[in-house]
Design the sequence.
């Protein structure tokens, strides 16, 4: 896929402006199957098998026009990591084609890649129908090197001339929901879920322990202090707990899991 050219410095991204203003003409055709304004579209980011997977999760069943999408991926400027060309399954690209908007940009010690796209074809005409609460992969982006990637709305993306906050529209109507999984570490244990991440200090931790045994869950703050510690004896099966760090200071935390003789660490961002 050809990479779109970026806008001159200080000017609003023309592609993002286009997808926000051009969808009105076909709004009525896309509203079928989506009942109310409260039914939004959430987004998440995963890293598996050397690639990022961008997934969306609708709050309601939908089969109309997925009008537009904007999201930004951020990673450490000092890491060895990089992103390749975005790819999409043919079926997805037929109703929502996404490409990188401009070049990778650097700001405040981070690199940013902005992605945008829009659609005009009802998903139902492609035999596609989303179900509420399910995840759907919109795009895959190959990763080079090692690093942590994050879907973000931050000071950089909020700048008017960048116009790069997460945005989703269906049927020409703003359906922007939440970034329910923002952080994608270099290696992820697929059985461990921290949702949402980033968060406001409250999140759900869940995982599956396939081999019966003792499991220790510990949360450590940015200066190495343990702020939560629990040992579950003879756990076999699912673990799920609502965690609350809202009385702590905002920042980066790590969830350490000790199970079956192994220790894994999972980053949590509290904003």
Sequence:
């Amino acid at each position: 896929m050809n990479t779109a050219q970026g806008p001159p410095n200080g000017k609003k991204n023309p592609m993002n402006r286009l997808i926000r203003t051009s969808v009105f003409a076909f709004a009525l055709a896309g509203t079928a199957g989506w009942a109310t304004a409260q039914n939004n579209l959430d987004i998440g980011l995963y890293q598996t098998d050397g690639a990022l997977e961008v997934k969306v999760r609708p709050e309601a069943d939908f089969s109309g026009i997925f009008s537009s999408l904007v999201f930004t991926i951020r990673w450490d400027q000092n890491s060895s990591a990089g992103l390749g060309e975005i790819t999409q399954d043919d079926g997805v690209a037929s109703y929502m084609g996404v490409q990188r908007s401009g070049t990778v940009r650097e700001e405040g010690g981070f690199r940013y890649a902005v992605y945008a796209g829009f659609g005009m074809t009802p998903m139902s005409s492609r035999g596609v129908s989303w179900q509420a609460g399910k995840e759907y992969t919109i795009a895959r982006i190959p990763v080079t090197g090692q690093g942590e990637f994050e879907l973000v709305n931050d000071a950089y993306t909020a700048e008017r001339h960048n116009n790069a906050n997460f945005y989703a529209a269906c049927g020409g109507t703003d359906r922007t929901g939440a970034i329910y999984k923002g952080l994608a570490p270099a290696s992820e244990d697929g059985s461990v879920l921290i949702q949402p991440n980033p968060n406001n200090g409250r999140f759900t931790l869940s995982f599956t322990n396939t081999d019966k045994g003792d499991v220790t869950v510990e949360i450590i703050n940015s200066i190495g202090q343990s702020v939560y510690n629990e040992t579950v004896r003879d756990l076999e099966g699912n673990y799920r707990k609502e965690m609350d760090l809202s009385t702590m200071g905002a920042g980066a935390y790590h969830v350490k899991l000790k199970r079956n003789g192994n220790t894994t660490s999972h980053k949590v961002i509290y904003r």
